[in-house]
Design a protein that fits this description.
The chain is an alpha+beta fold. The protein has helices at residues 11-25, 44-49, 130-152, 187-198, 237-242, and strands spanning 2-7, 29-33, 53-57, 65-69, 73-77, 100-105, 114-120, 158-163, 202-203, 231-235, 243-248, 264-268.
Length: 269
């Protein structure tokens, strides 16, 4: 089974590129982030014509997550239990945003199922912005739920994939001096991500492939290869044992109409 994750930065804008990628790379399951549409706006027909079932979660033109699978899709969840909300303005009630979506995939081909989460972690904005504390709380809540899931079933194939908006190591950005005093590389963010490993997950792509996964549209970042590695695949021990290969499809950042992120792909037994 070949599984990929991709922040597509608007599924309606890039649907043709996405379908081309699915066909070209023979992808069985794609977790998407930043789809930027409601379920009724999602371009379902091209995916369904290509043989994929869909789970879609979006509330407005911001955020949004989806999973496309041609190997079965069941038991969909649109939030994790502890997921905190964000108050978009003063005096507004916190709302749980469309940043998490789960489905069980793989059952249609007789494979051991994978419990897959497509995640779009909050950006954090600036270190002194309330969104930064929201981001840390979001990651801590996810950690606590992962601990509960693995305690209940230590042998499950669990995969948390997506745009984490954290560069865990200095080597994951082109120049650390550019990020001094900024989000994505701060010690608390890195610690929050590392705590997922402390409760039983491991990142399964780093030991197999090296590259950035994101290049800003501004300042010729892509031609200069001034990128960041912020898209990852974290798996339980049972999932990690099944991984046989990984790739970062850098070519998807090339050409007209590209997302600012590229797909991360793993093959699993």
């Amino acid at each position: 089974m070949r599984l990929a994750t991709w922040n597509v930065n608007s599924v309606r804008t890039r649907v043709n590129r996405i379908i081309d990628f699915l066909n070209r790379r023979d992808i069985d399951v794609l977790a998407m982030q930043e789809t930027k549409c409601r379920p009724d706006q999602f371009p379902r027909e091209p995916f369904e014509s290509a043989g994929y079932e869909l789970a879609v979660h979006g509330l407005n033109q911001w955020n949004g997550v989806a999973i496309a699978s041609r190997v079965g899709l069941a038991n969909v969840a649109t939030t994790f239990p502890g997921q905190p909300g964000w108050a978009a303005g003063e005096g507004k009630e916190p709302m749980v945003e469309a940043r998490a979506l789960a489905a069980t995939v793989g059952t249609a081909v007789g494979a051991e199922p994978v419990r897959l989460w497509s995640l779009y972690v909050p950006n954090g904005r600036e270190l002194d912005h309330p969104h930064y504390e929201y981001k840390l709380n979001w990651l801590r809540a996810l950690r606590d739920d992962v601990r509960t899931w693995l305690a209940a079933d230590p042998h499950q194939s669990l995969a948390l994939v997506g745009d984490w908006n954290v560069a865990p190591r200095d080597e994951d950005v082109w120049d650390m001096s550019v990020f001094e005093g900024a989000t994505h590389v701060s010690a608390p963010e890195r610690a929050a991500l590392a705590e997922l490993e402390g409760v039983g997950l491991q990142e399964v792509t780093r030991e197999r492939v090296t590259n950035y996964t994101y290049w800003d549209y501004q300042k010729l970042r892509f031609p200069r290869n001034e990128g960041m590695r912020i898209d990852f695949i974290y798996g339980s021990a049972a999932f990690a044992r099944r991984v046989t290969g990984a790739a970062i499809d850098r070519d998807e950042r090339k050409g007209k109409g590209a997302s600012d992120h590229v797909p991360v792909v793993v093959d699993i037994d």
